[in-house]
Structures are given as C-alpha cells and as structure tokens.
Amino acid sequence: MNDFGFWETTVKKLVIKNIGQILSGKLEDPIFDGDCLIAIDGKIEAWGYEKDMYYEGATTEVDAHGVTLAPGLIDSHVHPVVGDYTPRQQQLGWIDSTLHGGVTTLISAGEVHMPGRPKDIVGLKAMAIASQRWYENFRPSGVKVHAGAPVIEHGMVEEDFAELSKAGVKLLGEVGLGTVKDGKTAQQMVSWARKYGMQSTIHTGGPSIPGSGLIDADMVIETGTDVIGHINGGHSALPDDQIICLCESCSSAFEIVHNGNERSAVLALNTARELGKLDQVILGTDGPAGSGVQPLGIMRMVAMLSAFGNVPAEKAFCFGNGNTARQRELDTGLIEKGFCADFVMLDQAQHTPGKTMLESVQQGNLPGVGMTIIDGIVRSERSRNTPPAQRLPEHIK
User: Fold this and answer.
1) Distant-in-sequence, close-in-space partners of 6: CB < 8 Å, separation ≥ 6
2) CA–CA gap between residue 306 and residue 367 (Å, rounded)
3) Domain range holding 112?
4) pTM for the full model?
5) Radius of gyration, alpha carbons of the chain
6) Strand positions, DSSP E, 84-185
7) pLDDT in tens, 227-236
8) 220 and 343 both lie in a single domain
9) SS3 helix, strand, coil % of the chain, rounded to 5?
10) Is the domain of 48 the same as that of 118?
C-alpha cells in the first residue's frame, strides 16, 4: 500500500526487440511487418517497428538478435495421464521436452493410457473431472494442457454431459476408443456434448489400442464431430477414396498427426488445398503412444507438409498454431491483441541449405528453437532437442 492508502499493482511488461520477422499464425496473412512486440500482463498489446512504439518500463526484455518470432505451436492431439509422466512409455518430462520443440499448448484426445482407466459411467466422469483439475492446477514447465476428455461409453445420457460441462470439462476423448462404435449412438452423444459446449474428436482409421476398432468414413460423417482425429490414421489410415470423401464432405477440422501415415497426410493436405479448405488443416502428434514421445513432432509435421505438400513454410506453420487456435476456439496461437503472449523464437538451423529459415523449412529441415515464452514469461531458452540455431535470442532481464 502506498502513502495515499491505495494498493500498488505491478504491471508486467514484456518487450521483444530486434525481431527478424513475425509469423502471425494467420493463413490469410502469415507474415506481419515489424521488429518489436509488447505484451502486458501476459497478453499481446502491440507489435510493429520499435521506432514507433513505447517500449519503456519493461519488466522482461528480450533481444531477438534477428530471429523469427511465431505464436507458440499447439499439439491438437495428445494422450496425457498425470503431471509430466506417461506410463505408456514409462517416461518423465515428456511435456517439458515438447516445450523444447516449440509447443506451448497441448489438447487431450482422451486420457486413455491411465492404468485401470474406469469405463463405468461414474468412474469415467470422475476421472475426466479430476484430469481437468490437475492440469488446470499444475502446468508442467508452464505448458497449457487442456485435459479431462472422457471416452464415451454405452449407458451415458444427456445429464452426464450436462454434469461434465458444469464441472469444467470441455472436451470429449476420441469417439471409438470406448464401447460406442456405431454412428447413430455416437452422433446423439456428440450432439449432447455440443449442446453443453464440449468439443468432440473421432478416431479415424484402423484400431490403435485394445478396445478400439475400425472407424471408417461413413461413421465419421454420421457422427459429425468437431475434429476428424488423425485423418491420416492413428496408426493405420483409411483408403485414399475415403480420405478424399471426408475432405469433400466435412466442415470439421482435418487433423493430421505425426504418428499416422505420412503418404496419407500429404494426400489429405493436397485434397484440402484443391477444395480451398486449408484453413481446416490442424496438427497433432497422437502421442505419447506406442510410437513413443515426439518432442519435435509438430515441428516435423510443419517441415514435412511444407516440403512434400508444396506449401510455403510461413503457411505451414499456421497449421500448427493459428488454424488450431481458430478451430479449437483458443486465445493463443495467433498474433492478435488480447491473445496470450505465448511464443516460440526460431532461426535457421546451422549448416542447413536455404537462404532463410523459411526456405530451409520448406526444404524439409527443422529450424532451431532459441526460446519459448508463455503468458509473457520466458520458459525455456536454447532448445535441448532441436538442431542448434544460427542465432539465439537473449533474455536481457
């Protein structure tokens, strides 16, 4: 309290100077002009040229030293369990490792790898609510984990979805990983979920874990989820004609994952482009899973789709942040006033071909991550997982 009897508040001001280029996350305008960005109390306030901006009074200052600033990447499809541990791979620290791959937000497609996962109605609701709570209360390395995604089972009624929503659960786990495997029943439950503000995802392709099964294009279309989970298979993809049918028929997000079929990923991307639906393409890893943990999974998908899908790298990055933010209705993943100050700072990896970072990525190379920032706070500096960058940003204060 000051001498006048008022409580003093400290405004947290982040200033990032000497930015080489700003990737916006917006497919329609992927590169913004400017060399400076300011965030206030963890929210983006302004960006542009330093000479035109009021940058005094910074509580956190970063000198970008010419590297690229982009919205933090978003993994639209993960299977977390508890904290920063996954029993599927007996691995600790996988979320922190993912942060070092430039990912600042994770979205659960179901906590299906929990040992002894309850499948009765009371149990699955209890676990979903608990999962939502523990990741809301504990953010490993500052990463935002949207979790608590129950897998629907036979016997659920509308009141169950109302109860889950009221408790803060906003996601459904992959439809098809439980006992509900027919489109009519699944569509009814997805409709109830949507009524109460819950987003839904469906397993697409062949079986992945015990208890799952084939989910073909007919069921995906009949169910009508918000996201077509791993349209390129998780792990096994549908036949080409069914993938094309889904792209033609659906207004849902087309989720392409690292753990799926890479050929089918390129097919889905090319089909989406031909249909003018690139804004529906989003990215996930579908890990941790049998394929392991992929700290660089989203970055690898950006590079792969840019190289083999003939997409400019600045637009391919949008698949991994802005597109997902819009499809998932998040307040991160875009350079936009009032959005969360969640960023990844990148530069061309040492000794890679290409004249610029974007040109190098479009040739299929990973960039080097030099820093991640979440809510205006520096969370990591030089990545321990990406190849070393040519230049590194500097945390001044």
Assistant:
1) none
2) 13
3) 73-295
4) 0.96
5) 21
6) 85-86, 91-92, 103-108, 144-146
7) 999 999 988 9
8) no
9) 30, 25, 50
10) no
